[in-house]
Amino acid sequence: MTRHLIAKALLAAALSLLAQPSLAERETDRDAAGFLSSLEGRFSGSGTLQRAGGSSRSLTCAFNGDQQGTRLSLEGSCSTAIVLGTKIQIELRLDPQTGRYVGTFRESTGTVANLSGRRQGQRLTLAFNETAESRRPNPPATLTISRRGSGQGSGVEFTLRGSEPGKGQNIDLSLKED
Predict the structure, then answer these.
(1) CB neighbour list of residue 119: distance below 8 Å, 6 or more residues apart
(2) Pick from 5, 8, 19, 89: most CB atoms within 10 A?
(3) Residue 88's domain spans which residues?
(4) What is the pTM of this model?
(5) What is the pLDDT of residues 78-105, one digit of tens each?
């Protein structure tokens, strides 16, 4: 009986280790801080908002990034030529136990979403799931934040893609450092 309990305990410990990201896969606080600090500062640029049904609008946006350790706050605003404006706030943090980024997305016209995902190189890919708090909930989407280069011409790209074609909205933004 004792051997059976020991074998069960060893099996449980092995399964627990397999479920954890390997040391090579885990993002260290230092790695995260380096990536997140590259998103600190002021960025501005333009992009496109495409709504369900196919209509699209050009956007002009500006964001400020503030990084502290493994946390990042991106606050900004976007407007269209028709002066439709919205404020956006993205809060992210790295969970060092899982190596995953988690956070929230809030937009002044009523979109509220939970974010979670991983980083590969200069690209952070996040599941974008609107909460019950959203005014006009859309299907799940993917938000990608990519860092482009360093120095002159460097910037950030934001891409939001809905998981169900013809529903929700897609956004493509290309921002440069100010």
Answers:
(1) 27, 32, 35, 101, 125
(2) 89
(3) 25-177
(4) 0.78
(5) 998 776 788 999 999 998 888 899 999 9
